[in-house]
Amino acid sequence: MSEEILQNEESGQTKEPAGPDVKEGQAAGEKEAVVAGVHNYSREESYVWPEDPRVLKKLEWFRDQKLGLMMHWGPYSQLGIVESWALSDADADWSRGGIDWEVTGEEFKKEYFNLNKTFNPLRFEPEKWADLAKEAGMKYLLFTTKHHDGFCMWDTQYSDYKITAPDCPFHTHKYADICAHLFESFRKRGIGIAAYFSKADWHVDSYWKDDTPKGKFKSRGPSYRPAEDPEEWERFVTFTHNQIKELATGYGRLDAMWFDAGWVCERAGQDIRLGEVIEQVRKVQPGMLCADRTIGGPYENYVTPEQCVPEKPLSIPWESCITLGTSFSFRYEDTYKSPREVINLLIDIVVKGGNLAINVGPQPDGRLPEGAIRTLKGMGAWLSVYGEAIYGTRVCAPYKKGNIGFTRKKETVYAIETFAKETDPVENTVWIPYEGEVHEITAMGDDKVVSFTGEAGGYRVMLEAHEYESTPVARVFCLK
Ligand code: FHN
Predict the structure, then answer these.
(1) CA 429 to ligand 1 centroid distance, Å
(2) Phi, psi of 34, deg, nearest 5
(3) From ligand 1's centre to the CA of 1, what distance in Å?
(4) Which pLDDT belongs to residue 38?
(5) How many Å is the maximal CA-CA distance in the chain?
(6) Ligand 1 centre and the CA of 38: distance in Å?
(7) How far apart are CA 204 and CA 176, in angstroms?
(8) pTM, full prediction
(9) pLDDT for the residue numbered 116
(10) What is the pLDDT of residue 6?
(11) Ligand 1 center to 329 CA (angstroms)
């Protein structure tokens, strides 16, 4: 679903592909925020460091985690199509490609909004998901509590469009309050919790309604101009604040709330006064991080490149959200990145000071796709041996040269030699272009001290000849 966004090296600001112009009904800010369904990310220069010491402390916790499991799950998984976006008539040109049956836009929207009446993931076992996430080396969960379609994966008291409503067959299941059981299962295993929440809600009538001049045609923004109907907009703001507070007070400790739908913002005339509710929330969730994507300012505590990795290290907290398959939502017969691809991606991100939120779209029956499970297990196998060079580290100059990436933790520098392809040759001598002072080098894995010579510009490591069954994903050397 997501178009690749071209990254501008200096600013980190995206050069948007020739995406859709500001379409009819979209506020000016909408085009800048999301192009073909993909958010760009805020400029490093516009970042505002939080003043609350508890938030600053939580940011250091966040920067230590490095790896999160993002999950997009909702009734749309039954169709194997893009999450929510096909509902927006103004985005139909790119979002309805997966709609390959004879329906009109109006009929499709009705059918989509009725998917809750058949959503029944009977094979959902949150403990199994949490065990797998732990095995995969995940340090936090980023879960879609509500996507743009407005369907709530928790027992909200502010909407009947929810997993626990009588018209959703899953409401009788012991795990019906999916967010409650997922958060508890992951938290029990020491995994952090970040709640994804869409600021846009295409189901609630205070955002989308039909009795407007545009009639049934819908774009990603509200079906009316908030400035022309402030009472309606205030109803939407109250509804949104109530749901955010509900998640923050009834579902245990939240380490972060991650706000999607960047077009819902003051500069686009859609001010939901997010800061007001976050300050209230932080009275019960001290230090909770807030990622108000693409907005900048005090409530975007970290920036969130999507489906891309900045060219250079960023000096601010950041997290790339990237799909393990080809889509954030579940796709039938999807193809998944290999462990090698994901670990190389993680290394590329961590040497630049960021986190990776790798996304898996669960199946409509409640299981995770087999291909995703295989890769997650493969990731965990590598991280169980070399995770020390990833978790809790920070950027280390020259951060990356050739296929050698660098991280640092206290007095140790880690040189990570990556092998992008399983056919890459594995040499017995390794050139490490690091110019700091080094007295000892050990090879992680067997923790053997290795021979090396210091030369201009770096160190040459001489390893004992070793027959590898297959090219390793990456080798790690500890420089002390
Ligand atoms: O519109 C959403 C999209 O559906 C998906 O949730 C991604 C995930 O980061 N965020 C928005 C697009 O940038």
Answers:
(1) 44
(2) -135, 125
(3) 9
(4) 62
(5) 76
(6) 6
(7) 21
(8) 0.93
(9) 98
(10) 29
(11) 10
- Please write the tens of the pLDDT for every residue from 284-295: 999 999 999 999
Mutation probe of ligand 1 site: the residue of 260, 295, 359 with most atoms within 8 A of C-beta: 260
Question: Closest Cα to atom 4, ligand 1: which residue?
Answer: 83
The pLDDT value recorded for residue 98 is 84
- Phi, psi of 168, deg, nearest 5: -110, 115
Cis peptide before 398 (omega within 30 of 0): yes
Query: What is d(CA 179, CA 195) in angstroms, rounded to the nearest whole number?
Result: 9
Pocket of ligand 1 (CB under 6 A): 34, 37-39, 72, 83-85, 260, 306, 321, 328
Rounded Cα–Cα distance for residues 300 and 289 (Å): 8
- Residue whose CA is closest, atom 1 of ligand 1? 37
Start-to-end CA distance of the chain, whole Å, equals: 45
pLDDT 10s digits, 62-114: 999 999 999 999 999 999 999 999 999 999 999 998 888 989 999 999 999 99
Which helix H or strand E contains 455, and what residues bound it? strand 451-455
- pLDDT beneath 70, residues of the chain: 1-40
List domains and CATH numbers for the chain. Answer: 5-389 (3.20.20.80), 394-479 (2.60.40)
Give the pairing type, strands 34-35 and 319-323: unpaired
CA-based R_g, the chain, Å: 23
pLDDT at residue 155, rounded to an integer? 98
Which of 70, 71, 147, 158 lies closest to 116 in space, CA to CA?
147
Pocket test for ligand 1, best of 5, 38, 83 (most atoms within 8 A of CB): 38
Q: Residue 38 CA: which ligand 1 atom is closest?
A: 13
Q: Which residues pair with 141 in a beta bridge?
A: 69, 193
Residue in the block written with tokens 């594995």: 426
Q: What is the pLDDT of residue 36?
A: 56
